[in-house]
Design brief:
With 347 residues, the protein is of the alpha+beta class. It has two domains: 201 residues, Jelly Rolls (Sandwich); 114 residues, Homeodomain-like (Arc Repressor Mutant, subunit A, Orthogonal Bundle), CATH 1.10.10.60. Helix content is 41%, strand content 20%. The chain is built from twelve helices and 13 strands. The strands form two sheets. Strands 1-3-4-11-6-9-12-13 form an eight-stranded antiparallel beta sheet. Strands 2-5-10-7-8 form a five-stranded antiparallel beta sheet. α6 crosses α8 and α9 packs parallel to α12. The longest helix has 20 residues. It is globular.
Length: 347
């Protein structure tokens, strides 16, 4: 079902821009990180936690621009990452995949939002103050747009767009016209990526024009969009099983939780558990159990470990009783030893 019903054709070019921003001009902000959780904290005003999924050293880059009515950014992550995200209240987030990867090519894999797989013809959307989960592949780039709800509503009204706001708040994946998606990508690229080698800290010349361009690009996509609402009851049940499994593992982090134990606790067969994880997270339960504990151990080594606690103490806290195996698995996933992570924190 389309999101908009238009009483008259829209004249996008004649749309009056917002009043000029009063105060200091917003500036382009660029940051890099070599840890997934550090990277998650770099995005302003979001509540996030990232778990690294694929093996190797992590490198993340973020180019961000904040304006009075919106936040625009370009994010690149070198490894596959499971992201738990929550946008600031009274806003909408739009995720537009398809930015160039490090080879200058479009990523061949797509992200999942709450377990739902997007494709080349879709964008992602979630309202503010509502947690959602992303699973992004390795070498992945995405444009993000967060717009204040009231600003989007006012602009849509000025343009004659009748958006079903209740439907938009429930949506996760939107099918959009290719021309509108490409135009949005080009708008964002011009705004935050052109001249990025020498634009660090430079003010944006015209905030009003920048906000107008982004708002028009987003509404152009919404104007020709269709909500992908085909979520079966069986898929929602699989989502709930995966969420319950995660809660159980984190609630018993000092124990070596096994797949048979999870099956018993969740009252499902091993085959059902396997299907649930493959469908929602595209990994097996065994992989997930190992990844969530390794990422938890790394987080504690880097952030909350007191000087009196050793690497072995932290490993035991996360159910790793065979220290040599823990060290080997840790190095394979993160590209460094647990002791190297601890030294980074101490310095």
């Amino acid at each position: 079902m389309p999101l908009t019903s238009n009483p008259r054709p829209k004249d996008w070019a004649s749309f009056a821009p917002f009043a000029p921003f009063q105060g200091e001009s917003p500036r382009i902000r660029k940051v890099q990180a070599h840890d997934a959780d550090d990277h998650a904290r770099n995005l302003t005003a979001w509540e996030q936690r990232y778990d690294q999924v694929t093996r190797g050293p992590f490198h993340g880059t973020l180019t961000e621009l904040r304006m009075p009515a919106m936040q625009v950014f370009m994010e690149h992550t070198s490894q596959a990452v499971r992201q738990s995200c929550c946008v600031w209240p009274d806003a909408f987030w739009f995720g537009v995949p398809g930015g160039a990867n490090t080879a200058g090519e479009r990523s061949g894999m797509n992200a999942r939002i709450n377990g739902r797989l997007g494709d080349a013809d879709t964008i992602m959307v979630r309202p503010g103050n509502r947690e959602f989960e992303l699973l992004t592949p390795a070498d992945y780039a995405i444009y993000g747009i967060v717009i204040k709800r009231d600003s989007l509503l006012v602009t849509a009204s000025q343009l004659g767009c009748r958006i079903d706001w209740a439907q938009l708040e429930r949506a996760e994946v939107l099918h959009v016209a290719e021309s509108a998606r490409l135009a949005c990508q080009q708008t964002l690229a011009r705004l935050i990526l052109q001249g990025r080698a020498d634009s660090e800290g430079q003010p944006v010349a015209s905030v009003a024009c920048a906000e107008q361009a982004v708002m028009l690009a987003v509404l152009s996509m919404l104007d020709a969009s269709e909500v992908d609402s085909a979520v079966s009851n069986s898929f929602m049940r699989r989502q709930r099983i995966v969420a319950r499994a995660r809660d159980y593992v984190l609630g018993h982090r000092d124990q070596l939780v096994t797949v048979p134990e999870l099956c018993e606790r969740l009252h499902v067969s091993r085959r059902t558990l396997q299907y649930c994880f493959e469908d929602v997270l595209a990994i097996s339960p065994i992989q997930y159990l190992r990844l969530i504990r390794l990422n938890g151990a790394r987080r504690e080594l880097r952030e909350r470990c007191s000087d009196a606690r050793t690497v072995r103490d932290i490993a035991a806290d996360w159910g790793f009783w065979h220290f040599s195996q823990f060290s080997s698995d840790y190095r394979k996933l993160f590209g460094q030893s647990p002791s190297e992570s601890l030294r980074q924190r101490m310095h």
